Amino acid sequence: xxxxxxxxxxxxxxxxxxxxxxxxxxxxxxxxxxxxxxxxxxxxxxxxxxxxxxxxxxxxxxxxxxxxxxxxxxxxxxxxxxxxxxxxxxxxxxxxxxxxxxxxxxxxxxxxxxxxxxxxxxxxxxxxxxxxxxxxxxxxxxxxxxxxxxxxxxxxxxxxxxxxxxxxxxxxxxxxxxxxxxxxxxxxxxxxxxxxxxxxxxxxxxxxxxxxxxxxxxxxxxxxxxxxxxxxxxxxxxxxxxxxxxxxxxxxxxxxxxxxxxxxxxxxxxxxxxxxxxxxxxxxxxxxxxxxxxxxxxxxxxxxxxxxxxxxxxxxxxxxxxxxxxxxxxxxxxxxxxxxxxxxxxxxxxxxxxxxxxxxxxxxxxxxxxxxxxxxxxxxxxxxxxxxxxxxxxxxxxxxxxxxxxxxxxxxxxxxxxxxxxxxxxxxxxxxxxxxxxxxxxxxxxxxxxxxxxxxxxxxxxxxxxxxxxxxxxxxxxxxxxxxxxxxxxxxxxxxxxxxxxxxxxxxxxxxxxxxxxxxxxxxxxxxxxxxxxxxxxxxxxxxxxxxxxxxxxxxxxxxxxxxxxxxxxxxxxxxxxxxxxxxxxxxxxxxxxxxxxxxxxxxxxxxxxxxxxxxxxxxxxxxxxxxxxxxxxxxxxxxxxxxxxxxxxxxxxxxxxxxxxxxxxxxxxxxxxxxxxxxxxxxxxxxxxxxxxxxxxxxxxxxxxxxxxxxxxxxxxxxxxxxxxxxxxxxxxxxxxxxxxxxxxxxxxxxxxxxxxxxxxxxxxxxxxxxxxxxxxx
Amino acid sequence: xxxxxxxxxxxxxxxxxxxxxxxxxxxxxxxxxxxxxxxxxxxxxxxxxxxxxxxxxxxxxxxxxxxxxxxxxxxxxxxxxxxxxxxxxxxxxxxxxxxxxxxxxxxxxxxxxxxxxxxxxxxxxxxxxxxxxxxxxxxxxxxxxxxxxxxxxxxxxxxxxxxxxxxxxxxxxxxxxxxxxxxxxxxxxxxxxxxxxxxxxxxxxxxxxxxxxxxxxxxxxxxxxxxxxxxxxxxxxxxxxxxxxxxxxxxxxxxxxxxxxxxxxxxxxxxxxxxxxxxxxxxxxxxxxxxxxxxxxxxxxxxxxxxxxxxxxxxxxxxxxxxxxxxxxxxxxxxxxxxxxxxxxxxxxxxxxxxxxxxxxxxxxxxxxxxxxxxxxxxxxxxxxxxxxxxxxxxxxxxxxxxxxxxxxxxxxxxxxxxxxxx
Lengths: 779, 423
What we know:
- The structure holds two protein chains of two kinds.
- In chain A, strand 6 (about 175), helix 8 and strand 7 (about 220-225) form a beta-alpha-beta unit.
- The longest helix of chain A is centred in the last third of the chain and has 23 residues, at about 525-550.
- A five-stranded parallel sheet of chain A has the order 7-6-5-11-22, covered by helices on one side.
- Chain A is an alpha/beta fold.
- Helices cover about 30% and strands about 20% of the residues of chain A.
- Chain B is about 20% helix and about 25% strand.
- In chain B, the strands form seven sheets. A seven-stranded mixed sheet of chain B has the order 13-19-14-15-16-17-18. In chain B, strands 3-2-1-11-23 form a five-stranded parallel sheet, covered by helices on one side. Chain B has a three-stranded antiparallel sheet with strand order 4-5-10, with no helix packed on it.
- In chain B, helix 1 packs across helix 8 and helix 5 (about 220-225) runs parallel beside helix 6.
- The chains are: A alpha/beta, B alpha/beta.
- At the A-B interface, helix 7, helix 12, helix 13 and helix 17 of A face helix 1, helix 2, helix 7 and helix 8 of B.
């Protein structure tokens, strides 16, 4: 694109009152760029000026110095043009009110040793904006050569079938793979189901048969039973999937990353890259590398993971006080359900009728948690199973449910209330302390119950309310042929559930185009799983439609840029492959990364990681930010007897930058000696920008971004965490330059902590002032 | 080569711009459909905009809202209408005629949110956003991060000198005092109601003292007290005398699980109180908290982990028992009487402040919506997927937390799309 520049300065909203607009215009004129000012640039008249310039003068690269880019986003949208919004309003005028940051009087202006911090700030920001537009281009979207709109659903239980039907109804082709010889999953083992619809007050006959029938009526759904995924290679829109029979060993079984313990020799010394690669090949012998695509593989565009759960099977001595493993008539709820499905409830020990059944919801022992992986489901299941006892033995049957907390949230309460009406079902809070043999039956002892402080109940059968273990806990299931490994990443944080860490965005994980639903994501009832299936199906459809348009999916939805690599200079350090939060890169045996742009979320973490600086986006790259850094004027003692400090702040555009806008709106202020640059994510911050800043004499650099740790708020999962690791390492580099490592810092801030930012910035500036100016200043 | 063509075209109407409505609207638009998002407030975000933090992450809701607002800004397929209500829905699945009434904001798109009108406006009104705990100017920005970032003139000042003052103070000709309500006719293929919930009116629960006993507040009021942009800038203080509380009681199931009020469980109040207990403990390391509950409903491993963390705090005391009475005690204190469900003992606890964990009531309980809709006895909308066309999501459909609402709302985007595809 042949760029033709125009600079437009708005003087409204207090900008004109705070700044010397003529001098500011001079900054652009010095660069030979045409400048126009307007007192109300976002008005129709103001916008018309820009439009007219575009039409008549062919201006296609506009620097609009006005308000924050977070506002008037639609007003200053000129498709086909490069736009830079220089934030003079929230970023300069509003957060540096003249009563606190006085302008120079005419008299003061006489003396060239005086300077106006706020004016300097505005002029720097304008320079930075002009520098950026010179270095960026309009994006050309990444287009797949072939796009598959077919959706793969892994798991043929209630969730998987629901997802398949939902996608098929919207017009998409679907294949379900189910590892068992038949569809239905866990629901095949049930006598009755939890209520599915209002009024939610009674158990219902199994609906799984109807579901299978419904599925059969869709010609665009293919079912492969007795089948699992051997590997899923490629990227959304173009996955190549190898299917196989369970237990088969085939060439296209996914290779596994080398376990940590195999990366060292006998003495514990880490093996070099070549040796590690050799070990890796040995370890995966017989399996084709991830970059070898199965020529027989099937093409899919996106995936719904609905692999479900396995009932928790306790160890024989795990709940010894409850008799499990020792007493044959103590069983799990899953075993009980299977028994109930087979016929009347009887005692496993002697086959006699089980008319008194105790349901235990919590293992107790001074703890009020339910069994692991329980969720609210096991409470509901105990209520359901209690009704079986009454169904089988209407006159004599007695069911006791001992719970610490009856978990029937929302409208599920209706089911609880209806079960309470049954005079043969006793529901009580209580801690079960012991289950023991009593003749041919059992005795259950409990304390702190609503029936009495200590009670003993005679039972024929005891049922433990054990939980639902997600299929992904010990098995990758999806078997992604990704260099970072075949499983969803970091799911230990969720005990093996394939869940999202985001409350607002429940389907967002570290893998693009693969959306988990149902019990693999959280313990869910049938109704919740069916709902969840719709959501996951929508996300799968949305992902492949976005890929088709060359657009990113969440959180940079609609972004047309993608990372571009200058491979000639790649040193095969593998950092980009290892650090990408989304596993978008697969390196080859030499370590050269193969980008999979449709897996990429455009955070720029690869760009931040790359020591050779060969990765960039059309509108966001090493040079575009680096040039902004370099265009900051750094005054030295040659300019003023007491030159002001210059401190660079690289701020996360998702949370910290909006917080800075809020701070301005609230009339708060911070040092006028800082220069802030928004970044896509702190993970995209390349240390070269920090070195650039310090080597041109800036006195300090800080990063301002999201909280990390288990409850991370980073929208790209790992960005702020990776940045903090890089910042720790930069300390050594600074020391070698004889610079204090305290000149570089990273601060965490949440979007609503705008009131804390002034202190964070001012304290940092103060600490730099105490350290004194950067010794490189002026060189 | 593509193996299948993209689904049909058409528009979707989403009623309600809270977290559920935002989610349905965005998820559908990002598949490629045109969406009209209609919100009755002057801003998007609904209930979650009023929350200080989400459980269990203790992260600010504005973090996700900001991303969602950016998604709207970047997506021309979404048309947002605020201060708007749907007055008519006629037709059949795939083919609805809809009427939307837009109330006057008295501020047009010229507004730069510079705030000069608020500076000169003398009238102060109760902030409904802060449940009346704060006065705001008659010309106001709903909250800092409000989307759209545009001021509103309260109807109270229209026709007064204040309105004229505001108009004169505006350098951008953004105030239009002659603005009239207008109606818009739209043709859409599917309608999703995401009309959300309102806190149950706590004054109806006679024995719990709200509105009569000073220093008894609701859980939503606590959210505002704890929020940095709330009436006390995040300082949790007793409303009657601005004293820092040393003891606080949480009364669970205030209205919920009660045949006289809300017969269902409101899903979020247990987790909300656990979270709010942490708000207080963080601000007041010496404070003692009592939580009176029937069952702690913290389903799932993340919520259970959170509950166990809160329980580990020995200054947070859990009492299993339903509260029978909340009464005034000396010096602005509050006496909470409960029967311990296990021991049967009746006991009273005097605290500085009591928080009623009031439940959620569907917005449609009070005002029925246009269109052919089935409701539960309590006003939740029952979905009929076999018929399609009109759907409900989030708390308009059933009590739910934000995660479940967003799951549901994402799926409801697909249900709406299916209606268009079947047309």
